[in-house]
Amino acid sequence: MTDSPDAEALHPLDAALDLLERAPGRFAGRTTPEYWNMAGPFGGVTAGLMLKAILAHPEQRGRPVALTVNFCGAVAEGPFEITVDLVRDGKSTQHWSAIMSQEGRGIATSATAVTGVERETWGHHPARRPEIPAAEALPAFVPEGRNSWLHRYEMRYATPEPRPREPGELRGGLSQFWVRDLPARPLDYPALAAISDSFVIRILQVRGDIPPVATSTLTTYFLADPAALERQGDKLILGVADTRAFRHGFHDQSAELWGDDGELLAVSHQVVWFKG
Known about the structure:
The chain is built from five helices and 13 strands. By secondary structure, it is mainly beta. Strands 1, 2, 3, 4, 5, 6, 7, 8, 9, 10, 11, 12 and 13 form a 13-stranded antiparallel beta sheet that branches. The model has no long low-confidence stretch (mean pLDDT about 95).
């Protein structure tokens, strides 16, 4: 982890993603309070950590294509270690495995990833960004003392804000909002992995309350190349998320992340466990 005099000047996300390489493919880190959630760190920052460790491996080539993170258990406050293994190295793609563990607690998180070398190929982009009001026309979401990670993002909702309410009629699960790191920070792949989990849980959006809940698995597909991330810079991203079914204590969520120029940067899918 960073030991320089400027360490305190790091952006909160960079501080949360700070890793010390102990050996090739072996990294040490520590949780930070700025991204705390209900029972551990915000899942998005854990996803960002797993991806950052993979990208820091000395044999890594190309850019992220896909990342799947399985949240095996809550990450406890304090130190952790991430080990990264190159499962298979191909001409066009590399396949990776990563494990986050904590002393005395075992494995907290596992992940797999695919990275690929950029190639010039045929392209087609049938998806179109939804039309919603410009960010400056929408009020900033005020978290009102909720989990600290919510204070690390600027969110401007075009759909109803996800707030607790009295039991009653169910709402739709759709969320559309502008989002970026707070303070604003140039977009990179670990930050994009984190933002892919920035959608407040669908059960709050639909039912209006928050039972015990946790993401079980999250997969993000990265469609943006490095040039697209550079064009995006620190501008607001349009996030769109919806759900299809709540059943037997689990529900799905599918999401899209769009650049301010209309380019689709990433899509994600997750399965969430809930009680009651």
